[in-house]
Structure formats: structure tokens, C-alpha cells
Specification:
Layout lengths: L6 H25 L7 H17 L23 E3 L9 E2 L2 H14 L9 E7 L2 E8 L2 E7 L5 E3 L2 H4 L16 E9 L2 H13 L8 H9 L4 H6 L3 E11 L7 H10 L9 E3 L2 H14 L7 E8 L2 H7 L9 E5 L2 E15 L4 E13 L2 E7 L3 H7 L6 E7 L5 E5 L33 E2 L6 H11 L12 H9 L14 H4 L7 H14 L4 H7 L7 H11 L2 H6 L2 H5 L6 H11 L2 H12 L24 E4 L7 H10 L14 E4 L5 H8 L4 E2 L1 H10 L7
Parallel strand pairs: 2-11, 18-19, 19-20
Antiparallel strand pairs: 1-6, 3-9, 3-10, 4-5, 4-7, 7-8, 10-11, 12-13, 12-15, 13-14, 13-17, 15-16
Helix pairs in contact: 1-2, 12-13, 16-17
Length: 684
């Protein structure tokens, strides 16, 4: 190699650089409530440090930010030493990481074949505090600080209406309650409006405002800020009957008069946990408080004790994070788009701005209620947020910059595409175009149907879809298979070769397995994985149509929400008509035959094989499916329990980690041998 530097020395230098940077940002966030970088950027720094320390365990020190919680306190308040440490949480940034943690939990409990009960809670974006009650009276409140030592904020906490000063008869003689102080979005908006009217500085976000309000030297100022509180755990306790589960603890806190968030739920399966997370992702904008994720916990307290903790975080809990990034820009106009399912979604036309590493010129406003609640108007300077690859959203206006002549924006009453009267079902936040034949809906459904992940009709892009719909050649996905090619031949750009290629692509798509078809039909909540599971479970469309909700719920990975969605979709009249047309067009309605014989169905039983990079003979999801079909596991992360890593072109960090852990690395040829023989064979 050309580089003669010692890799350990290079890693040590970078580790030191990361530690110094993280310590500085910890101080800005935890001590001064004035962060200088978005949460997502901080998470990237911390994750890089974790990865490097994992690769070089000899370089881990007790004072590393990976081993500590928060930051030191300042001298504004008296210091408080916590009786029990207030720990942080480890984070997962995708479902693969979350599932890998769940696997570690099962192994730690020595019950890989049985599922512990899980509890999901919202991860509030506020300030963690500890409340001490002695003989039923609030005697002390403290911030988390560095996890061991916090700040005494008792006088300020006593001004928060939701926190009881005394507990009912029968309360424990000593009780430590832990929870989150936060500022609701309504309160935050009202506060900024008051600041604007008074021509004073407006605040950037509710979290920092809440933290700053709680640490006021004058508690009378805190009292004016209308802070709120959620209780989510018990720390130390004396003189009380031991609870059996975390959810039981939350119920106890509620009976004692503490505000407990109603979104906490217990689940029997991890698939239901994922379903809950997906639901929260879709609905978090309807909450009157900010969250930055979902916390998943093992419910049984005995299991929590068995799993224990690291230096900074419990092993029995994981935070699934939704890291945002924010920028400001000008809102040029508000328009409404119509989705494939008919939902009318307002969105903002923006003066282009770089958010999350990409240029953003449009951002979602979610629904009419959100537009009203945020009171964003054309011409406003607005805050734009982007979480990972999620569509950017407008957080709200910078009221101090609002023009005097601005007018509120009103949601239209008619569909901007077909002019049908828009409807809003009772109890729902979304507004819909009821016209199933609306060109925007038709285009959306067809574009999805022909896409690579669905029926994969090559040469049938968005422009082609727009052309055929506008010329009234197709009105639903089934019309693709009876397309009038003579008429198509009259269009510019469709010569003999193009026509023949299109015919061939359509014919090939007819042979796609049922799983692809189900995904292409855009059944609510049915992604590629669920579509394949359903197809394999019921063999063909006839079997699926005869299935009851109870039958659907027996499919591993399907919860009640998905089961009901599939069942109802199949019984809607226009969908039945569509399926009838697909039958007439002789589209394949059977699941793919399993390439694995019965005797090979457990060939990789007990093995964990991770796939990374680009393979030449199959796609990465196909490779993972092949592993699963043979009884193996294929998570998205490399760990000490990984049996082998399949490394295609561009293996990246997973390859480096596997090398550091001395995990067998298979090229594509060795992987194919593994699928045939169940044995790992390495070639030099």
C-alpha cells in the first residue's frame, strides 16, 4: 500500500478530534441550551466515534462521550447527585438496526425462539428531569446533567401545572419520577406571537425554549412559559409494591396524578412494533408537541434487570430516531397536489435552499389543519425541515419577518385537476378528491404499477404515462395490457423499434409473480415484503380473495391493520372490476414457485449472513430472500454473531467491520456455493 501511516494512529487522531467536537456540542446543547448544529449532524459525529471505537477497542477511554451522558452543569443552580444514574439511550436510525438490537435482546434473554413483550413510547424532544417525593410531597427537582449530577430546578418545576406538588394517600414513602419537560407547539406559537407584538426576539424551536425557560433564575418567568410534563419512568422507590412491567409502572404513575402520554402501547410481536413506528411517522405532525423518535423497551422489569446496561445506556431499550435538519427560505406559493389514492396534499413552492445535502424547492404542508395551525402564508420566511430521505416539510413561519400585508391561505374547495368537490371524511385530517377517474389519481396508480419494484415495464416512464392518460388510451392499470398500439404508433417518438420494445416489455410483465402484482396495485400498507409474504401464503389470487381477516392475520409479519386493509381493498367494487380485467388480459395471478426444495428449506438454519455491495447475478434483496428461504437470517448490520458477509462491488463500512471482527467474507461465487451446500468455503 502507498500509505505507510499506522492505521491505529490515524484512527486515534480521528477519535480524539471527534471527542473534542462532541464534548463542545454537548456543552452547547445540554448546558447552554444553544446548539450550533442540527441533531442529525450531531448523531453522525457520535455514530462515527462509536464505529471507530468498536473497530479499535483498545482506544476506548472512560471519559469518551460514548461512555458518558449529557454534559457538565453550570454554576447557576445548586448541584444534585442522582441516587440512580439518569442514563441516555442508544439510537437506531433504520429498521435493520432496530431489528438487530431486538436480536441482541433475545440472545441476552436466552430466548431466541420466543418473543418478549415490547412497549413503545414516543421520544419527546424536551428536557429530562428527576422529581423526588418524600412522604408524598415534592421536595426536589433536578435536570439530568451528565447523568450523575444535575441542577436543582425545584422552584421552577413547581410552576409547571401538570406536576403534582403532593401525592394521594398510599403513595410510596420515597419516589423518584422521571420524565420530560417540554413546550407544546400551541404554547410555542403563542409565545412567539407575544414576542413579535412586543418587537422582541422570537424563539427558534420548542425544545431549546423549554430548556431555557426551565433554567431561568427567576421562577416567575418560568411560570409565564406554560411548560408541560410527561412522566415516563420510576427511578428509585421505597415503601411501594414492586411492579412487574414497565407499562404497569406507567399506569401507577397515572393513578398517582402524573401526566402520562396516551400513545404508550404494549406489543406481543416485533412486527407490531414496526407497524406502530410507521403509524407514528405518518401521524407525528398531528401532535401538539415535538418528538424525535420512538422508544422501544422490553416490558418485563425482570428481563430489564437481566439485560442490564452499558456505561451510558440500558440494553433493554432503544430509541428509533427521526433526525431532522432545518433551514430558512421564502415560501413563494402554496399549491395542492392529488395523490394516487386521491388525497389532496398542500405543498409549498420554495425559493430553492439546500437541506440535508440536497436542493429543496418544494416541501409538504401535510393537510389543511396543519396549514391553519402553522399559519404559513405566501411570502413568508419559513423554516424547512428534512429527516433523512423523507420529503421536506415546512415547520412554520418566522413571524418576525412576516410582511404587514400578508393574508391567510385558504384550502381550495375543488380538485385542481378534475374540479370535483373535495371531501373530508369525518374524524380524518386528510382531504380527498372523490373522483376515482381523476387524471392525477390515474397517473399516480399507473406510474407506480409500471415501476421497477412492481411490474417493471421497461420504457413506460412518467412521460409515457402522462401521454397515454391524456390521450385517453388508458384509464386504469389493466388497460396497459390491451393498449391500442396502432394509435400509439401515430405519436411522435414511437417508431417501429419503440413499439416492438414496448410490446415485449408488456408481455414480459404479464409473467411477473403475484407478489409484484399486489405491490403494484397500491393496496394501503402493502409494501414489497408484505406483498411477497401474502402471495407465498395464499399461492394465488383466488386463494387470497377467499381469505378472511383472521386468515390474513395468521401470516407472519402481518398485523391487524394490514390484514383489514387487504381484506377491504379486495372487496371494493372498482377493485374487483380491475382484477377481472387483469384476469381477462391473462396476467399471471400466481405466486412465484419457491426455488428451494423442501430438503434445503433449513440449509442455512442458525446462520446469519449479511449482504453488502452490488452483486452481478442478483439484486441485494433477492440475495437476502434466498438466505431467508433457506432458514438463515440476513440483517442489515454486521456484528460479532454474523456467520459470513457477502461482499459485492462497493462493500464500504460493513466490509471493514467484518474484517476487524475476522468474519468470513464471501465473494459472489462463494455465496452461490453457500446457497447450494450450506457450507462456507473461502478462496484466496
Amino acid at each position: 500500500m502507498a500509505n505507510n501511516s499506522n492505521p491505529t494512529d490515524i484512527a486515534a487522531a480521528r477519535i480524539q478530534e471527534l471527542r473534542e467536537s462532541i464534548r463542545y456540542h454537548n456543552e452547547r446543547y445540554y448546558t447552554f441550551d444553544s446548539p450550533e448544529i442540527p441533531d442529525a449532524n450531531y448523531d453522525m459525529l457520535l455514530n462515527e466515534l462509536k464505529d471507530l471505537e468498536q473497530l479499535h477497542p483498545s482506544l476506548v477511554t472512560a471519559d469518551s462521550p460514548t461512555q458518558l451522558v449529557g454534559a457538565s452543569t453550570i454554576n447557576t443552580f445548586e448541584e444534585v447527585t442522582h441516587r440512580l444514574p439518569m442514563m441516555s439511550l442508544d439510537n437506531a436510525f433504520d429498521i435493520d438496526q432496530l431489528e438487530a438490537w431486538a436480536d441482541r435482546v433475545r440472545k441476552g434473554l436466552q430466548q431466541e425462539n420466543t418473543e418478549p413483550q415490547w412497549v413503545c413510547e414516543l421520544k419527546f424532544d424536551g428536557l429530562a428531569v428527576s422529581l423526588i417525593y418524600e412522604e408524598g410531597r415534592l421536595v426536589q427537582a433536578a435536570t439530568r446533567g451528565n447523568g450523575k449530577v444535575g441542577e436543582d430546578v425545584t422552584a421552577n418545576v413547581q410552576t409547571i401545572k401538570g406536576i403534582p406538588h403532593s401525592l394521594p394517600d398510599g403513595a410510596p414513602t420515597f419516589l423518584e419520577v422521571r420524565g420530560e419537560v417540554y413546550m407544546s407547539l400551541t404554547t410555542f406559537k403563542e409565545l412567539n406571537e407575544k414576542q413579535r407584538i412586543a418587537e422582541e426576539k422570537t424563539y427558534a424551536n420548542p425544545r431549546n425554549t423549554a430548556a431555557g425557560s426551565l433554567r431561568q433564575k427567576d421562577s416567575r418567568i418560568t411560570a409565564t412559559r406554560n411548560l408541560s410534563f410527561w412522566a415516563y419512568a420510576v427511578g428509585d422507590v421505597e415503601g411501594a409494591e414492586q411492579q412487574d412491567s414497565h407499562l404497569d409502572t406507567l399506569h401507577l404513575l397515572k393513578t398517582l396524578g402524573f401526566p402520562v402520554n396516551e400513545k404508550a402501547e404494549r406489543f406481543e410481536s416485533f412486527s407490531s412494533v414496526i407497524e406502530f413506528i410507521n403509524k407514528i411517522e405518518q401521524t407525528r405532525h398531528d401532535l401538539d408537541y415535538e418528538i424525535d423518535g420512538v422508544v422501544v423497551k422490553v416490558d418485563a422489569l425482570s428481563m430489564q434487570q437481566q439485560l442490564g446496561a452499558t456505561a451510558r445506556a440500558p440494553r433493554w431499550a432503544m430509541a428509533y430516531k427521526l433526525p431532522p435538519e432545518e433551514q430558512t427560505t421564502t415560501l413563494l406559493n402554496i399549491e395542492v397536489s392529488i395523490g394516487a389514492g386521491g388525497q389532496a396534499t398542500p405543498f409549498a413552492r420554495l425559493d430553492p435552499v439546500v437541506v440535508g445535502g440536497s436542493k429543496v424547492s418544494t416541501a409538504t404542508l401535510h393537510n389543511s389543519d396543519q396549514v391553519k395551525a402553522k399559519d404559513v402564508r405566501p411570502g413568508d420566511i419559513v423554516i424547512v425541515r428534512k429527516a433523512g430521505d423523507v420529503i421536506p416539510e415546512v415547520v412554520g413561519p418566522v413571524l418576525a419577518e412576516r410582511k404587514e400585508n400578508s393574508e391567510p391561505w385558504n384550502f381550495p374547495t375543488q380538485c385542481p385537476i378534475c374540479e370535483a368537490t373535495l371531501t373530508r371524511p369525518e374524524g380524518e385530517a386528510a382531504t380527498f378528491c372523490p373522483n376515482h377517474a381523476c387524471p392525477a389519481q390515474v397517473r399516480g396508480r399507473i406510474t407506480h404499477f409500471v415501476s421497477r419494484g412492481a411490474m417493471d415495464i421497461e420504457g413506460f416512464g412518467e412521460q409515457t404515462v402522462d401521454l397515454f392518460v391524456s390521450k385517453k388510451l388508458i384509464s386504469d392499470v389493466a388497460d396497459i395490457f390491451t393498449l391500442d398500439m396502432e394509435t400509439v404508433a401515430t405519436f411522435e417518438g414511437f417508431g417501429e423499434t419503440s413499439i416492438n420494445n414496448l410490446k415485449t416489455a408488456i408481455q414480459i410483465s404479464k409473467t411477473q409473480p403475484l407478489g409484484r402484482l399486489l405491490f403494484g396495485l397500491r393496496i394501503p400498507h402493502v409494501g414489497t415484503t408484505v406483498a411477497d409474504l401474502v402471495a407465498q401464503s395464499f399461492t394465488d389470487l383466488d386463494g387470497l380473495e377467499q381469505a378472511t381477516i383472521e386468515d390474513l392475520e395468521t401470516v407472519e409479519g402481518l398485523g391487524p391493520v394490514i390484514a383489514v386493509s387487504i381484506h377491504e381493498w379486495l372487496r371494493q367494487e372498482h377493485n374487483q372490476q380491475l382484477l377481472s380485467k387483469l384476469r381477462q388480459a391473462e396476467v399471471n395471478l400466481r405466486a412465484a414457485s419457491s426455488p428451494v426444495s423442501q430438503e434445503n428449506a433449513e440449509l442455512l438454519n442458525g446462520m446469519t449472513v449479511v449482504v453488502t455491495g452490488t452483486l452481478t447475478t442478483m439484486k441485494r434483496n433477492e440475495a437476502r430472500a434466498a438466505i431467508l428461504q433457506r432458514g438463515g437470517k440476513s440483517p442489515g448490520t454486521v456484528s460479532s454473531t454474523t456467520s459470513a458477509l457477502v461482499a459485492g462491488e462497493g462493500g464500504g463500512s460493513k466490509l471493514l467491520k467484518a474484517e476487524s471482527l475476522s468474519i468470513p467474507i464471501l465473494d459472489e461465487e462463494a455465496f452461490l456455493q453457500l446457497l447450494e451446500t450450506g457450507k462456507i468455503s473461502l478462496t484466496n
